[in-house]
Write a structure and sequence with these properties.
The complex is a heterodimer. Helix content of chain A is about 60%, strand content about 5%. Chain A is mainly alpha-helical. Among the domains of chain A are: about 55 residues, no CATH class; about 80 residues, no CATH class; about 90 residues. In chain A, strands 1-2 form a two-stranded parallel ribbon. Chain A has a two-stranded antiparallel sheet with strand order 3-4. In chain A, a hairpin with a 4-residue loop joins strand 3 and strand 4. In chain A, helix 21 runs parallel beside helix 23. Chain A is elongated. The mean pLDDT of chain A is about 90. Chain B has 4 domains: about 110 residues, no CATH class; about 110 residues, no CATH class; about 90 residues, OB fold (Dihydrolipoamide Acetyltransferase, E2P), CATH 2.40.50; about 100 residues, OB fold (Dihydrolipoamide Acetyltransferase, E2P), CATH 2.40.50. Chain B is built from 13 helices and 14 strands. In chain B, the strands form 3 sheets. A 5-stranded antiparallel β-sheet of chain B has the order 7-6-5-8-9. Chain B is globular and about 75 Å long. Classes of the chains: A mainly alpha, B alpha+beta. At the A-B interface, helix 1, helix 2, helix 3, helix 5 and helix 7 of A face helix 5, helix 6, helix 9, helix 12 and strand 10 of B.
Chain lengths: ~525, ~450
């Protein structure tokens, strides 16, 4: 390696020299006869391949010179002041909380993340700075996480997300940017629905006006999606708009406004439907018994039915005329029949089951109970359904009915069934209903189910029979048993884990999930670092 | 001593083991969990009838498990370590079980044997003769190797001359084999270091429109190396060592330790970067001596889930000696006996960060001594991570002096890491440690000036 340092008088022009050299090198010394830049002190002796070697040597030296003389780009003064994040107003998660969040973002217990973020916001806690990018990147492609994420970003996270176009949509989902009219006018349908939902929560009348002005220009598919936002803060003020779109030519639009309209007190549609239905279902009372007499409509379907929202065909009901009656019954508040006949829902269901139209009546009333959120009817329907073994005339939308009831109410339904058959097998009647009891399970329910499970686990040889149903139940429990009941489950069950074939993994998953949820709950009260 | 998640993860070399360990880092499958200051243990339910006994010697740390896996740590060890980092309160048993005692005792005995071995190795005199013959044979092999290497360098020079004669534009049409064949010849001639450089050349074409300039720069550096290698006897001892390592002569760790002076200090692990290729995991750890202020790069390899030779963890403090490889700018070092001193609890930036002009001055000096320097450790303070049209930069605001101007140092990192640095900074200056490559900074870790917990 030549060691002679370049003399100070050498005019070193690394930039220009490099360009000349690069030009020659690109074409090749065979093609290009341009002179090579010379660096004093780095001349090679004359050889046949002198020119090539000189080019390579000069390239090596200039590269080192250019690296050593690297000049960072200067910045124009106008761009000098970057915005600085404002100080935080909320406390960050503590160290274990941050740790747990990191595990969630690593993909463990993904089902627990949305709820954790939501409770974090309720407790006025925020995500620590070092996890912001992980969270934003995780939530970006998961629209359901946008709103809960936006609520826990803190000042730093909001500041950060606003600078990245990929994360700005996430902020748009939060309620922090409600006056962005550009979104409403030019956004995607999803963004516009989100915008409208926010408006609807704060100012329902304004949202309705926006909606009414926009709807005529929209295709039917979008009309239906946009009209659905009216279910938030639904009021009688919305009636004219809903009635207008009941006459829409699109079935999708009609079916969207219909359940909203019939829910409004004093709507004319409900009266018209009652007039159609009342003569068709009569209660015949004699001294000893009561009987329900049901007839189908005598007239064929015509346009007048359509103006009441009744379609010519409905896949929920078999037969054309049966479909007409079924739709009418599914729209009327079921309570109205109870009042009309002065009978309890349970009694009415018993009478309905004895008619030849049992399937139709039960299906329609179940739908009606869901539309009108009639909890008394939902209870009656579920009781009737699970009470005793009978030949079921129909399948009921039990999951939707159960959703109308509180965990406590469902517990009252399921516990007697459980006590009547306190053992685990695939065909016990309480099992399907138990899996519909949502969070949070009352303590006495958990205790009873754990007892039944413990008894089952003590007979390991028979576990293969119940492997599937039991693991389903355990997975459900991991979601709905409150974290505070971890000890209630772990104390009796963990000792059995070591010898629980087939159910080993489900059981470990239940206990671990509950334990993890318990830690998440504790993290909410952990002091920040 | 408390372990953080990050530090625990640094000890788990195998990605699959980490994933399975994560699943085991929950209480349900464990029994008899416990720990002392120096050990942790537990019994984990596996597929067999008997639970596996898993233990960790925290002084090292080292792992033991009764499961049949040959990966260290196995998933049970990994799970136990993560559990220790996440929920130490679950490891509540105070008394180590007997099986753990046995293992710890055995470990201690082997440790003692290891340290006493060098003194015991006295050579009987009658071996001296055979030693001499072996030495002669070795010198002969060495001479043969040098001849072969010189021939390889000569061939490479001819190849380089041909490339320049035909022009760089023509290389764009060359098939893969054009580069591969030359690299293979270099390997045959025992010049694997040069072969690596040649193998990297075709990839430059995909790194941007200025690939001819990058290619020319790399060819020029390669040529300087070839010429330096051809004049090996004329070089200084340090330069000779450097050039030999550059062309691919590997120095044994033991030889480095036998020939070079050890540097004793309290070492702090500033940053670690791990890359995986096939099943080989390469971990680069940057250490800094707290008294000498010296930077040291410890490069270690792990194949097929075996543990690294030294269990360095980010933020770990170690007392002991490092021995630097000989060369023009010694950075790479071999760890000697390092005693783990715990973890640096401080989230504050290490002291001694430089501004950009100081860094560039230092780098230019280093480059003057070592023209093939690939990366230079840089502890930079005062820069704000900022996204500009070309990507992320560290923006250094103008100092009050009117002659000075604000400037940007480009960051060579992926987009999300740029955002992480930005998140940490909040728009205020940050201290960043990374590797300066001559064209940009590869950031490895950043510290905010004000720690988050102290923000109002």
């Amino acid at each position: 390696m030549p060691t002679t340092p370049p003399t100070p008088e050498t005019a070193l022009r690394p930039g220009a020299d490099w360009q000349r050299l690069l030009h020659v090198a690109l074409l090749g010394t065979r093609q290009s006869t341009d002179p090579l830049p010379t660096l004093s002190g780095f001349a090679l002796p004359e050889t046949p391949d002198h020119r090539e070697k000189q080019a390579l040597l000069t390239a090596g030296v200039l590269t080192a010179v250019r690296k050593a003389g690297y000049q960072p780009p200067m910045v124009a003064p106008a761009t000098l002041l970057p915005p600085v994040a404002t100080p935080e107003t909320q406390a960050a998660l503590g160290p274990s909380g941050a740790q747990l969040l990191q595990q969630l973002l690593d993909g463990q217990y993904p089902e627990l993340l949305p709820e954790f973020l939501a409770t974090l916001a309720e407790h006025q806690r925020r995500v620590p700075h070092h996890l912001l990018v992980r969270l934003l990147d995780y939530a970006r492609a998961r629209p359901t996480l946008h709103r809960p994420t936006a609520a826990v970003l803190g000042q730093r996270g909001a500041w950060l997300a606003a600078q990245n176009p990929a994360w700005q949509t996430l902020l748009a989902a939060s309620e922090q940017l409600p006056d962005d009219t550009a979104t409403w006018e030019t956004g995607t349908i999803r963004q516009r629905i989100l915008y409208l939902e926010v408006q609807r929560r704060h100012n329902p009348a304004h949202a309705r006006e926006l909606l009414a002005a926009m709807l005529p220009q929209e295709p039917a598919k979008h009309q239906a999606q946009l009209l659905e936002t009216l279910q938030e803060q639904l009021s009688t003020d919305d009636m004219p708009l809903l009635e207008q779109y009941l006459a829409s030519r699109s079935k999708e639009v009609r079916q969207t406004v219909l359940p909203l309209l019939v829910r409004l007190p004093g709507n004319a549609l409900q009266e018209r439907l009652w007039q159609r239905a009342e003569p068709l279902a009569r209660l015949k009372s004699s001294l000893l018994s009561k009987k329900l007499l049901v007839e189908l409509p005598t007239t064929e379907w015509d346009k007048t039915w359509l103006s009441d929202g009744i379609e010519q065909k409905d896949s929920r009901f078999q037969g054309e005329k049966a479909a007409l009656l079924g739709q009418v019954l599914a729209l009327l508040p079921p309570q109205r029949w109870a009042t009309h006949w002065n009978l309890s829902p349970g009694k009415i269901l018993d009478l309905a089951a004895d008619t030849e139209w049992a399937t139709l009546l039960l299906t329609a009333w179940a739908e009606a109970a869901i539309v009108h959120q009639a909890t008394a009817w939902a209870t009656a329907l579920l009781e009737w359904w699970y009470e005793r073994p009978r030949k079921h005339p129909a399948t009921l939308p039990v999951a939707n009915l159960a959703r109308l009831l509180s965990p406590a109410r469902l517990t009252e339904l399921v516990l007697p069934l459980l006590n009547a058959a306190p053992h685990f097998s695939t065909d016990v009647r309480w099992l399907p209903l138990l899996q519909l009891v949502p969070a949070p399970w009352p303590e006495h329910l958990t205790r009873r189910v754990v007892e039944v499970l413990r008894d089952a686990l003590r007979k390991p040889a028979e576990l293969y029979r119940i492997q599937y149903v039991a693991s389903q139940l355990l997975d459900h429990m991991a979601r709905v048993v409150p974290a505070a009941q971890y000890a209630l489950c772990a104390e009796p069950l963990q000792p059995l884990l070591q010898d629980a074939p087939y159910l080993h993994n489900s059981l470990a998953r239940l206990l671990n999930t509950l334990h993890f949820r318990q830690q998440l709950a504790e993290a909410l009260h952990e002091p920040p670092e | 001593m408390t372990w953080t998640e990050e530090q625990a993860r640094a000890l788990i070399t195998d990605a699959g083991t980490l994933k399975r360990g994560q699943e085991l880092a929950a209480p349900a499958k464990w029994q008899n969990l416990g720990r002392t200051d120096t050990a942790a243990w537990g019994e984990c339910k596996g597929s067999g009838s008997k639970p596996y006994q898993t233990g960790i010697d925290l002084t090292e740390p080292a792992f033991k498990c009764s499961c049949p896996s040959r990966v260290f740590p196995c998933k049970h060890g990994a799970g136990l370590l993560l559990l220790l980092a996440r929920q130490p309160q679950l490891l509540s048993g105070p008394t180590p079980p007997a099986w753990l005692h046995d293992w710890l005792d055995k470990r201690q005995q082997t440790q003692e044997k290891k340290t006493s071995k060098p003194t015991a190795a006295a050579q009987p005199a009658d071996l001296a003769a055979t030693e001499a013959t072996a030495e002669a044979a070795r010198q002969k092999r060495e001479a043969q190797r040098h001849t072969r290497m010189q021939r390889g360098a000569q061939e490479l020079e001819t190849w380089l001359v041909d490339v320049v004669r035909a022009g760089l534009a023509a290389t764009n049409q060359q098939p893969r084999s054009f580069w591969e064949n030359q690299a293979a010849r270099l390997v045959d001639n025992q010049l694997p270091g040069l072969a690596t450089v040649v193998r990297e050349l075709p990839g430059l074409r995909y790194q941007g429109a200025d690939w001819p300039a990058r290619l020319l720069a790399r060819l020029g550096e390669l040529y300087l190396l070839v010429r330096a290698f051809q004049r090996l006897p004329e070089l200084s001892e340090d330069a000779r060592q450097e050039v030999l390592q550059q062309v691919g002569m590997t120095l044994k760790k033991e030889d480095v330790q036998a020939t070079q002076p050890a540097v004793a200090d309290a070492w702090l692990v500033l940053a670690q970067a791990t890359t995986e290729e096939e099943r080989l995991v390469v971990r680069r750890s940057w250490l800094r001596g707290q008294q000498t202020g010296r930077f040291a790069l410890v490069v270690e390899f792990s194949f097929g889930g075996q543990p690294f030779a030294t269990p360095l963890v980010p933020g770990g403090r170690y007392a002991g000696e490092l021995t630097f490889y000989p060369g023009l700018v010694p950075l790479r070092a071999v760890p000697g006996q390092l005693a783990f001193q715990g973890l640096s609890a401080e989230p504050f930036a290490p002291a001694g960060g430089h501004g950009p002009s100081q860094l560039l001055g230092e780098y230019a000096n280093a480059l003057a001594g070592h023209p093939w320097l690939r990366e230079w450790p840089a502890l930079l303070s005062g820069g704000v991570p900022t996204l500009v049209a070309d990507g992320w930069v560290l923006r250094f605001p103008a100092p009050p002096a009117p002659s000075e101007q604000a400037l940007d140092l480009p960051l060579r990192c992926d987009d999300l890491f740029g955002w992480e640095l930005r998140a940490m900074s909040g728009g205020a200056p940050l201290t960043v440690f990374g590797e300066w490559t001559g064209q940009g900074l590869r950031p490895l870790v950043g510290w905010p000036e004000v720690v988050e917990s102290q923000l109002a």
